[in-house]
Specification:
Largest sheet: 4 strands, antiparallel
Number of helices: 10
Structural class: alpha+beta
Helix content: 10-25%
Number of strands: 39
Strand content: 25-35%
Distance between the termini: 17 Å
Shape: globular
Length: 627
């Protein structure tokens, strides 16, 4: 984290936190000026049965902007509590933390995943999405204790709640009309209404403005994801962004004048700022706020002076906060590396409630790794044949085996994927074992397959009708390109998976070789239906993806095998040489894997170094790198 923050500071200083368009957002007039509405035909009007005047007044439908910032700040980092969803102790639960990163509290405690927290304006309740009853619904938990109250019970997906400023209603995204739409209901779950039924493309991620007049959301109704505004009283919809890039995830500033949102182009994903009265779609300027290459989930402090967000790294996520108006400010880390998902929610008057988690609370393990140590201890473990996974091709001898130290985790993951998707996707694999002497120009000499700790999934997957079920999503972070896999579920009734809200990457020959060879493909449309995040499931069992290759003679943009989206490894904190010593006699490892052997295999010296290959005296200069 220290290196990450130092790099951000250096970049911010060099670039001066200048706006993407060359200057920061300018002062703008009030909402009553400068807005050109595009009314969507056949939209119900008024949408919620109330007028705009009522929506911005003291009635149940609006209530005006609440006074949420009270009691001062905590050492200049903001007041209140930040809520988020984290994977800890084998569960996805809702947590809250002080804006300075202190006093972590666990709010929910259930084996099912809990995500997308949203504070009530008074800070006494948190609405969230959960799959507790085998499909995604919205629940609310109260500071007073007790079990969370279920607010929706439709068999299709409901998620991403957001309270109205008076706390009387909740807007949310739902799949109950056959596609993602923006809905609203009373805070007790009553009177649900579809606000975007006239559009068949996806609308999602609604957030209610603090003054009660508008709901901002993301939609791909014009082909690519853009930020939209819905006027609560009239049902009129306005497009705020219109570039070919991805723009999504808007969140309101406390004065309802600005929106922070996520902008993704050429792999980089950062947080930008727009003035709502002068949005980009009408020629307005934007300001770039973050520089970490993959940032998400912005959340404003209640006084509007700071912005919290999630930064993604190859080895986890962290919550940072910045002062948007500060030049080259050092970001504040609120958490260490976590596994985080969904949005952040910041409330200025919420107090700490819930339990204080302890490191001893390990939760219910997903699997038990049963090992049988070898007599004599050299090697201490052996390879185990996978009982239910078979090779797609027999060219590698049909061997499917893994180290005794990881085989049970794979078997458990295989069963979990089948349960979650309805398909035994891991029942057939591309590769799971390589002989110790195996060598290839397109593979690492020190391959984790040789240690029995790597699995290659199928390159593609189809159902009985021949329809493709596997989607590959590009994710650039930490200067590398990674891939996330999604599998379409067998049951499309809401009981498996959730709607896909990310654009897959088109890896077809047409996209890679003809349309966009410089980028190795292009974004394609978001498919309809329910999907399961295979990458997230694999990570729960300790199986991590690797980055694509981008070497001069082996680059993923033109060489298919360099993509590596199918390759997963389970290292358990070991370096590769240590892992080899677990399953091969030391004498044999020392025979095949020396610094000289790696050089003869055209491996770079740093590759041998990071894999833990013993360092010869003549190469002692690499000790400086190791420190």
């Amino acid at each position: 984290m220290l290196l990450l923050v130092e790099a951000a500071l250096l970049i911010a200083t060099l670039l001066g936190y200048r706006a993407a368009s060359g200057s920061p957002v300018l002062d703008s007039p009030s909402f009553s000026q400068g807005i050109s509405w595009k009314h969507i035909p056949n939209a119900p009007s008024p949408v919620l049965g109330v007028s705009l005047a009522e929506a911005s007044g003291d009635s149940r439908s609006g209530g005006g902007a609440p006074s949420t910032f009270r009691g001062g700040s905590q050492s200049g980092v903001g007041a209140g509590r930040i809520a988020f969803s984290a994977y800890r102790h084998h569960n996805w639960d809702i947590y809250t933390v002080n804006p300075d990163g202190s006093d972590l509290r666990r709010v929910t405690h259930d084996p099912a995943p809990d995500r997308s927290p949203a504070w009530s304006p008074d800070g006494t309740r948190i609405a969230f999405a959960s799959r507790r009853d085998h499909n995604w619904d919205i629940y609310v938990v109260d500071a007073g204790g007790g079990e969370p109250l279920r607010l929706t019970a439709h068999p299709d997906y409901d998620g991403s709640p957001s309270f109205s400023p008076d706390g009387g209603r909740i807007t949310f995204e739902s799949y109950r009309s056959g596609n993602l739409d923006i809905w609203v209901m009373d805070a007790d779950g009553g009177y649900p209404q579809n606000l975007t039924s006239e559009v068949t493309e996806g609308d999602f991620g609604p957030v209610w403005s603090p003054d009660g007049r508008f709901i901002a959301f993301t939609s791909w109704r014009y082909g690519d994801k853009d930020v939209f505004l819905l006027e609560v009283g009239s049902g009129q919809v306005m497009r705020l962004t219109d570039s070919p890039a991805i723009e999504e995830g808007p969140v309101w500033s406390p004065d309802s004048q600005k929106l922070a949102f996520v902008y993704q182009e050429d792999g980089a994903r950062e947080i930008y700022l727009m003035d709502v009265a002068h949005p980009p779609a009408q020629g307005g300027r934007t300001k770039r706020l973050t520089w970490f290459t993959r940032d998400d989930a912005p959340a404003w402090s209640p006084d509007g002076r700071r912005l919290a967000f999630i930064v993604h790294r190859f080895d986890g996520e962290s919550i940072l906060s910045i002062e948007p108006d500060a030049l080259g400010e050092l970001p504040r880390a609120l958490t260490g590396l976590e596994t985080l998902a969904g949005n952040l929610a910041w409330n200025g008057i919420a107090t700490a409630w819930g339990e204080s988690p302890t490191e001893e609370d390990d939760g219910q393990p997903l699997y038990v790794e049963v090992t049988t140590p070898q007599e004599g201890g050299d090697p201490p473990y052996s390879f185990k044949k996978l009982p239910h996974a078979f090779l797609e091709s027999q060219e590698l001898g049909g061997v499917t085996k893994l180290s005794d130290r990881v085989d049970d985790s794979f078997n458990a993951l295989q069963a979990r994927v089948q349960e979650e998707t309805g398909y035994d996707f891991l029942g057939t694999i591309s590769e799971a074992f390589r002989h110790i002497a195996f060598a290839s120009k397109a593979s690492a000499y020190g391959s984790w397959h040789k240690a029995g700790r790597a699995v290659d999934m199928l390159f593609d997957f189809h159902n009985a009708a021949g329809e493709p079920l596997l989607e590959v999503v590009r994710e650039d972070m930490s200067g590398e390109t990674y891939w996330r896999l999604y599998l379409r579920c067998a049951r499309q009734d809401g009981s498996q998976g959730e709607p896909l809200k990310v654009n897959p990457w088109d890896l077809s020959f047409q996209a890679r070789a003809v349309e966009n060879p410089s980028e190795g493909g292009r974004l394609k449309s978001i498919p309809h239906g329910y999907y399961v995040d295979l990458t997230a499931l694999a990570q729960e069992y300790g199986w991590d993806r690797i980055s694509a290759h981008d070497e001069e003679d082996f680059d993923w943009t033109w060489h298919f095998k360099a993509l590596e989206y199918w390759h997963y490894e389970k290292r358990d904190g070991l370096d590769w040489y240590e892992a080899m010593l677990e399953v091969y006699p030391r004498q044999k490892v020392e025979e095949f894997f020396t610094w000289k052997k790696f050089a003869e295999a055209d491996e770079e010296p740093y590759t041998a170094l990071v894999k833990g290959v013993p360092l010869p005296f003549a190469e002692r200069r690499w000790l400086r790198v190791r420190r």
